[in-house]
Design goal:
The chain is of the alpha/beta class. The chain is about 35% helix and about 15% strand. It has a single domain, classed as Alpha/Beta hydrolase fold, catalytic domain (Rossmann fold). The longest helix has 19 residues.
C-alpha cells in the first residue's frame, strides 16, 4: 500500500490549535504500518474522553472543545482518522473500506492506556466509533453522539446525501475547507477554512476524503451492511448511558437521533437535546456548549 504523509510545516500557525501531536502505529490488512496522529490533552489520570471526527475534517474540529474539557479535569483524546489530519494517507481510493477504517480505529482504541472511556462521535466518527463500541463494549462507560448514524442500506438515503455522494465522486476539485464552511451555520474565518485544507497539499492526499461518502451503506447487500446490522444488535443490549445531541440545521442527519433513542437501552431517561442554530459541523457552531454538555454528562452518570 502506498501512502503519503502531510509535511509538518502545513500545520504551522493553526488558529487555537497549537497542540503537540502524538502518534500510534496501526497495521493495514496487507501488513503496511501506518502512523495515526492524535491529540492527548488534560490530566493523564483524568477520565478519558474520546472525540471522533468525521468527513472531511480532522481533530482540529475539536479545538473549541478540548480546552474546557481538559480544564474540567478530563483527559481528552482526539485522533485523526487514517487519511485525515496528520495521519498517514493511502493514495488509492480502493485502499479505503469501511472495514479497514473500523479496524484502524479499533487498533488505536485498544492501544490507548485508557479504560471506561466516554465517546463523543459525529459524522463518520459515529459510523466507525459505534462499530468499535459493538466489538469492545467494555472499553466504554458512556456515549454521546451528534449528527451521525449507523446505516445498513435497508432504508433509502436522503436526496441531500445522494447529492453529496455524487459530488465527492465526480467533482474534479474537492475543496475540503470550503466544504466544511458550507456545512456550518456560522461561516468560519478564512484562517479556519485554511486549517481544514492544511492536511491536503494537493489532490493526491484526498483519496480518503473522497472515499468516505461512497462507503456509506446505501443498499441492503452493501459489504458493510451485515456488520452494521450486527452492531445494531450489540447496541440493543448496551445499557450504559447513551446521549444524543443532534443539531437543528443538518439536512443529512435530521431525525437520525430517533432510532438510537428508541433502540439503545442506555438512551432511556437521558436528557437528549437539540443543538439550536447549528449545522452539520456543530462543533464549529456550538463547540463550547457541546463541551459543557459532555462535562455534565460525565458528572451526572459517574455512579452508573
Amino acid at each position: 500500500m502506498d501512502f503519503v504523509r502531510t509535511p509538518d510545516h502545513r500545520f504551522d500557525g493553526l488558529p487555537d490549535f497549537n497542540y503537540e501531536p502524538c502518534y500510534r502505529k496501526v497495521t493495514a490488512e496487507d501488513g503496511t504500518v501506518l502512523r495515526m496522529a492524535f491529540v492527548d490533552e488534560g490530566p493523564r489520570a483524568g477520565h478519558p474522553v474520546l472525540l471522533l471526527h468525521g468527513e472531511p475534517t480532522w481533530s482540529f474540529l475539536y479545538r473549541r472543545m478540548i480546552p474546557p474539557l481538559a480544564d474540567a479535569g478530563l483527559r481528552v483524546i482526539a485522533p485523526d482518522l487514517i487519511g485525515f489530519g496528520r495521519s498517514d494517507k493511502p493514495t488509492r481510493i480502493v485502499d479505503y473500506s469501511y472495514a479497514a477504517h473500523v479496524e484502524w480505529l479499533r487498533q488505536f482504541v485498544v492501544s490507548e492506556d485508557a479504560d471506561s472511556v466516554t465517546m463523543f462521535a459525529q459524522d463518520w466518527g459515529g459510523l466507525l466509533g459505534l462499530r468499535v463500541l459493538a466489538e469492545i463494549p467494555d472499553k466504554f462507560s458512556r456515549v454521546m453522539i451528534a449528527n451521525t448514524g449507523l446505516p445498513t442500506g435497508d432504508h433509502a438515503m436522503s436526496d441531500a446525501f445522494r447529492a453529496w455522494q455524487t459530488y465527492a465522486r465526480e467533482t474534479p476539485d474537492f475543496p475540503v475547507g470550503a466544504i466544511v464552511a458550507r456545512m456550518c451555520v456560522n461561516r468560519p474565518d478564512p484562517a479556519v477554512i485554511a486549517a481544514y485544507d492544511a492536511p491536503f497539499p494537493d489532490e493526491s492526499f484526498k483519496a480518503g476524503a473522497r472515499a468516505f461518502p461512497q462507503l456509506v451503506p446505501t443498499r441492503p447487500d452493501d459489504p458493510a451492511s451485515d456488520s452494521n446490522r450486527a452492531a445494531w444488535r450489540a447496541l440493543s443490549g448496551f445499557n450504559r448511558p447513551f446521549l444524543t445531541a443532534f443539531s437543528d440545521g443538518d439536512p443529512i442527519t435530521r431525525g437520525g437521533d430517533k432510532p438510537f433513542r428508541e433502540r439503545v437501552p442506555g438512551a432511556a431517561g437521558q436528557a437528549h437535546f437539540t443543538v439550536r442554530a447549528a449545522g452539520h459541523f456543530l462543533q464549529e457552531d456550538a463547540g463550547a456548549k457541546l463541551a459543557s454538555k459532555i462535562v455534565e454528562f460525565v458528572a451526572e452518570t459517574r455512579g452508573f
